[in-house]
From TrEMBL:
Pfam families: AMP-binding (PF00501), AMP-binding_C (PF13193). GO terms for cellular component: cytosol. Gene3D superfamilies: 3.30.300.30, N-terminal domain of ligase-like (3.40.50.12780). It is an enzyme of class 6 (ligase). One of its GO terms (biological process) is acetyl-CoA biosynthetic process. Residues 51-418 form the AMP-dependent synthetase/ligase domain. It comes from Ammoniphilus oxalaticus. PROSITE patterns: AMP_BINDING. The keyword Zinc does not apply. This is acetate--CoA ligase.
Amino acid sequence: MQPIALPIVEGKYNLKNYEEAYKTFDWSEVEKEFTWYETGKVNMAYEAIDKHCETHRKNKVALYYSDANRDEQYTFLDLKRLSNKFANILKELGIVKGDRVFIFMPRSPELYTAALGTIKTGAILGPLFEAFMREAVKDRLADSEAVAIVTTPELLARIPISELPTLKHIILVGDADENDQGHISYQDEMSRASDQFEIEWVDREDGLVLHYTSGSTGKPKGVLHVHNAMIQQYQTAKWVLDLQEEDVYWCTADPGWVTGTAAGMFGPWLNGASNVVRGGRFSPDDWYQTIEKFNVTIWYSAPTAFRMLMGAGDESVKKYNLSTLRHVLSVGEPLNPEVVHWGLRVFEKRIHDTWWMTETGAQTICNYPCMEIKPGSMGKPVPGIIAAIVDDEGNELPPNRMGNLAIKQGWPSMMRQIWNSPEKYDEYFQTKGWYVSGDSAFMDEDGYFWFQGRIDDVIMTAGERVGPFEIESKLIEHPAIAEAGVIGKPDAARGEIIKAFIALRNGYDATDDLLEEIRNFVKTGLAAHAAPREIEVKEKLPKTRSGKIMRRVLKAWELGLATGDLSTLED
Ligand code: PRX
């Protein structure tokens, strides 16, 4: 059954005719926007911030920041000067092009300043979500051989400095106490640093940002993006986000995830847009207030957040004036048609679904304001992107056949490396020039793509991508646990929740206290969002003859489905 398409809402959009653009557009049209066109060199921070200081945008607000205690705004010129200062601090420490500099702290103006300053030095930015705990932090810093980290005194204890031989510099944002002696004070250094800095001009293919993300096997992998990604980040911010001069844009994602950098910093600032950042945790009132307070016109969020807002009821929406909103978008998980219809009712706006991944570096399949929306569909490929549904051999499948969602290799913001792991990188590109995403989908006869599920065991919970392996590895470190297998269990609010199946060692009983202790063990060792919401104790877990836990069988148990072919089962 085809749902009813939502008609185009008339307006002056940057992308006027999708089909036409899809036929004619070529990425080389965008190249002229950036300095490399003239000098052969480039730097993302220059293109995003400094460049606008040579135009009418110099005193335009680039960043509106607010949280429970702060309410600040920064112009492009302010951000240019502040990031210059930070770049000088790094330079004095001896940071050079290609070094990995991590930022591990809650959203704040200092986070954005440090990120831009890092990029100005030519170093590679490693953003880490603040919720990560010791082990998760260690894995990422060790794998990337980070040399410096910007953090807060509160988070310092989660960085196992003595186990990280390459990590030489710790820059602390916030009031340090005597235990923090020996580290660098952000405030002190910023107050003396010069606000003039000679940018490190880099090549298009030089490293920009390293985002760690999860697969179904192994430790998290470092997805490297290069400065060249700006081509697609700039163009999709124009076409998909539809950013225009007067817009006030709010992307709710944290820079710890790709949405928070590509669509929360780079894309909007490359277009000279005013960007809103709200610190602190999610609450419906807070979010509606943010839209009202800053007169947000374009809002980019995630299905989980929309579902939570929906759950808070219509009464809470009605308290606020949200009439400035003109364009609403979603990313990260399937956007239920129900949510789209709710959006139509309460905001009187279509919510535009967009599909992409850490690895794609920018939006790839989207709904555009100038196009009809079919609720439940992710939309159509961005002009310049070739997407298809392919079988396991890389043959394109006809419409309405389910298969692998794939993108033709070579789009501008494509990841360029899995850090330290060329083999893992190659795994993505083994099918006839296609990047195989790990998602299954189909394309309908009108060219709209429909998400069906993950092919691998990656879990998407509340919009966050979690690898079962990382959680299983943590679980079996617990003395009571003999075996562990982790799956995503469908959940109406969160998309999926994390469910762990465990077998206990002899001598342990499955008491509520023990299960709670195990949950906390993951929470404090890895991250709160990685802790299993449900734990089920089994005598034994299903394993292959080579000893690999069969998550497929766990999932079938959970869903009450047939377990399929069990010929490879241990016994
Ligand atoms: O399964 C898809 C899901 O999120 C995965 C990528 O996760 P991550 O790298 O963390 O990036 C998320 C945001 C860019 C995809 O493989 N996903 C992302 N967008 C959608 C989606 N699933 C359904 N619909 C979407 N619009």
